[in-house]
Amino acid sequence: MTTNLRKEETIWQNSIFMRLFASYSVSMLGHWFDMVAIIVLFGYVWNADPMMIALIPVAYALPQVVLGQFAGVLSDKFHKVKIMMIADFTTALLTFILLFSNHPITAIIVISLRATVNVVHSPAQQGLVKLVVKENLIMKAITLNGSVNQLSKIIGPFIGASLVGIASPKLCILINAIAFTISAIILLTIIVNKEMVMKTTMIGQQNAETEKEHFWGSWKKGWVIVYQKKVLFVSLIACFLAFTAIQMIDFQFPVFFREIAPHLPQLAGWIMGSSGLGALVMILMLNRYKNLKQYGWLIGGSLVLIGGGFGGIGFLQEGFILAIPLALSFILGLGVGLLSITSQYIIQMETKQDEIGRVTGISNSVISFTVLISPIMGGVLIHHFGFIPVCLCVASFLVIIGISLFGGNNVLFKTRREEDEKAMSLAE
User: Fold this and answer.
1) How far is Cα 86 from Cα 187, in angstroms, rounded to an integer?
2) Are 170 and 99 a contacting pair, CB within 8 Å?
3) What is the distance between the alpha carbons of residues 88 and 177, in angstroms, rounded to a whole number?
4) Total-model pTM
5) What's the CA gap between 383 and 316, in Å, rounded?
6) Distance CA 79, CA 46 (A)
7) What is the C-alpha separation between 18 and 176, in angstroms, rounded?
């Protein structure tokens, strides 16, 4: 009788995850304060030329592209909380150093070093979530982290821009340094707690016994895992195509709206906020579910939403009603939110504990690669053919891919559980 009356455990009762969640929340908010400050410093304080400004996303993305996969291997082999704590303390230190940078080149070097340190964070965090959160609560954990990410993108730039207007941009950088210090201290409380230490080191001991292969062997094994598990492989390709398309068009929005709405220079920022709100709304909707099924419909639906948002914007003409691009960017954001949560959920559910770091590292590396190539591709294509034709072609491509995933759902997205059940039935 007492067993039946016992309440089901919630994600809020998981002390390790809640500390991890608090650490992530503080660091993400600080990160977006920092982003505003860097943009203002380069654009308005230092009057940096366009080429120097173009190096900012490269400084963030290149370390992830080059080192992301190796960071995933490290997170599978070593203590995940310690890796994250060291990364946060080092990030805080480098951010304090950034406060004293008075030239764009110096700042770019520090930003790239900081991004290099941070490549280990995401694979370690994903692995820790899989370790300490029960399978029926994985969806809650992913959507909570996703909600904080989107809220930070909205709140951080808004408050950060206000602080920049009142004080120096470097105040926002200082806030980021303090935020990462607090994040590291929160992670330290996990390490010093005896009960939590036992839980978080257990997997490290298991890995030491089972994962003795060479570093390069572990890295190759990660790619073998992605390639052999069709769900992981197809979802990674879909994410690569989606984010390639988004990055191609995203950076060109100011150019397009400068032509059709020169009196609304703030429109690009409003669209960014509306897109972030759409992603947040989708993530909050997904938070109601314990698990996800029919991955083909979910990923395909996300691509259709993103393509529909881009396509609608491509049809805008001078004299448009302001609510239309905001609504379209909201739809686009719904698609981005659906895609990001579904892809994270697939990685969590379709990998084993000693695989998730490598798979996450590979995914981050591939997605970050789009930041390096897509803006250049988009700029070249739009220079030759114009924004509208390129935007409509990209939108059509995404919609076609999305519809194809609808049809291929049963073939392309066989889950690990379905494959295990099939193997068991054949064995019997």
Assistant:
1) 9
2) yes
3) 9
4) 0.81
5) 19
6) 41
7) 21
